[in-house]
Amino acid sequence: MFSKVLKTYTGRANGFYRNLSQKLPEFTKNVFDVSRGNYNYINDGHIDYFRRVLGTNRVITNPEDAEKYNVDWFSQVRVCPQGGNTGVNGGSIPVFDEVIISTELMNEIISLDEDSGVLVCQAGCILETIDNKAATKDLIVPLDLGAKGSCQIGGNVSTNAGGLRLLRFGNLHGNILGLEVVKADGEILDCLGTLKKDNTGYHLKHLFIGSEGTLGFVTKVSIQCPSRPKYINVAFLGLQNFNKALKTLKLLRYRLGEILSAIEMIDYCSMDFIKNVVGQQSPIGDYPFYLLIETSGSNALHNEEKLNSFLEESLQKALVLNGTVANEPNKVQDIWSIRENIPNGFQKVASKMLYYDVSVPLAHYYTIVDDVADYAKDISERVFGFGHIGDGNLHLHIQLKNDLTKEVKSNFDSFILEKIVRYKGSISAEHGVGFTKAKLMDKIKPPSTLKVMKDLKKLMDPNGILNPYKIFI
Amino acid sequence: MFSKVLKTYTGRANGFYRNLSQKLPEFTKNVFDVSRGNYNYINDGHIDYFRRVLGTNRVITNPEDAEKYNVDWFSQVRVCPQGGNTGVNGGSIPVFDEVIISTELMNEIISLDEDSGVLVCQAGCILETIDNKAATKDLIVPLDLGAKGSCQIGGNVSTNAGGLRLLRFGNLHGNILGLEVVKADGEILDCLGTLKKDNTGYHLKHLFIGSEGTLGFVTKVSIQCPSRPKYINVAFLGLQNFNKALKTLKLLRYRLGEILSAIEMIDYCSMDFIKNVVGQQSPIGDYPFYLLIETSGSNALHNEEKLNSFLEESLQKALVLNGTVANEPNKVQDIWSIRENIPNGFQKVASKMLYYDVSVPLAHYYTIVDDVADYAKDISERVFGFGHIGDGNLHLHIQLKNDLTKEVKSNFDSFILEKIVRYKGSISAEHGVGFTKAKLMDKIKPPSTLKVMKDLKKLMDPNGILNPYKIFI
To answer: In chain A, whose CA is at the least distance from the CA of B182?
Structure first.
């Protein structure tokens, strides 16, 4: 029925740091203090079975061929149980010798209903592909990420991906109508509903949204696509300080309300970094803070009037010092590319970079960047703060003077954890727990909550065979 | 800590039909074929314990005082485990001699953060009360029901209530940020997060949204409140047939997009019924179908321009035959009162009324009303179809010539179930399963799905003490 690929792991995994003179990253199991579970080792009998069930060309055992599934985007950990392998907390890659089941051939769009806006597809469909399909019917997939060209919807669902337009369309728990899931015992769980309202019994699909493949393997997805906004405007604004950014947020919600589709914050360091590393300048000169605003709606004139009225008021109230607006697709894309180039640029100094994806209540949204900059002043080049401020989601990156070591990472983890707990934030806003944050779970969750999570894991996967070493250690 | 009320059940329950010459409805246990579980009977020792823990005035055992908790809004079944008791499938009332824990004194609004729009409150807060609180900060609670003046947010969450503006704000799975829940073993589960993005482990709160109090007792709720739309417009339109209504829906989404906040359908029979029974006339004369459209947004002029442009086009394309619009609050309320008076009017003929709350894909949304009218032609006065067509949610009511009997109900249940299964709809769109639909669960869910649901129930409530006889029988 499904076009599945199954690969066996090569037996090597990498660590969060790497020796740049080596071509391959270090083994995960060597870098992190983790013990292999009491699982069977893969033998020729298993391989033969997989080949019989899936076909010879669907099983990869050659180490070179398996390489791209074993190293994730950040080259941080090194194995792949599923999806587009665009995760950044090691949730999609194995730790020891786990078998990788890739969804990449499960890429069929099953249906798109124009009247209801419901799109049903296999888990391996690339996000951009299904959004392009939705666009043919004036619909939009209500999720948009930097990785949209390679991430897969099954992985998005399993990570509860957030992204750029959560502000407008809400989260996946609200937009996913149904899932087909393969349980640990191989049984297919058909929750692939296509109705917006269905209150018949427990809403099982939510178990699998954000549980990172540890409770079940998502194979099909049904998603509600709203009308595609016809007209997009963006504004790129320069501000004097973070306090003005907060006040601007309030004015934005008040004046732009229903047409607001994204509010991104970029700090001076982030902008300066891409100027120097990527060669992209701010279109309005240098300011301590920038906001990138996107509006989208069904009437071009109305959108512009609202945006202009907001801009006039924000300049008049001295909330905003300078700004530029765009509505032509090329210019809109130019402005968005500033934001997108930040994580791309960081790739160039990956071995010296530490990153955190946190949620912080707005009052402390930038305080924590200052805290970290102060804490890190002797060993860091720069500390960067940027992200989806409209949803309280901050991406916090630290560029070190030297290559990252285990000890330095551990110290920063502890420092940031302590601040996040104090500010009542979250240590993972949208990237999930994966492997790298699993050890923090017992520091951030009350025992009663952790117990229910572990009970659920035991119920759904009694032998612990689904994505082991992830979420819990 | 919490102001709880605990009452013992009087020992009487009613059925879905009743003898109008009697003051009290019939016992549930006598009407339905259901056996009492192997639970302890309440004795004086229990009552003393409750009094000691909660205080003497928090325990009600006098039958007269307990009456209002034992009969629900439709006088259909007869006991109350929690909430505002506005449910219509018997989910909120006991079947045998269950103890009722009412949330009505847990009515404290704990916090409202203006910047983030997060409202945190106890479960017994009345929906309208928290919405009024949100309004003081230009925010809106993203849920609106006919019962908003008496339903409680804890009950709304437990039923996954849908209501009038789901079209605009999405469902509770998307809008509830956190819950505090008391487990069956008395342990408090603190998932009362206030962050829009928090991907740290399993998203436990979703277990309790829509599980009707059978997995845990919701005691506190944290909800994301968006900006309150400043300007509301409504249009009341007359149409020639259902096919034109479908085409109008498409044009509505295309032209009104982001400002659409509700689309309700009313058929001729429903309108005619409230003319005769409630004395309220259609403001535009008689038509086979009516649509009530609500738009809401941040700029009055823009809203009106969009709505007028839609109306011109819909008249020009002969989709709509006639219509009236309103923007003054009183007139807006007058038009909404047409829709709200339909279920209110039905109360007057409750003993002869059968009702279904179903989801149906749009292509068959009204086909099922015709199917039922045809099936029921000899024994019914009228068949009514109305509801949240923008979300595919139909309220289907049948007024019989005679008082409802068990046999007639059973026949209709089977007929509608068969149609709903064929049209790939849902037998409960927003009202839940409760007691009255529990027997249908094994007819609509695959065994694998039912098994996971029952496994979850056993995990969270091993002794089956939370809202027994509900969802599963």
So the answer is: A448
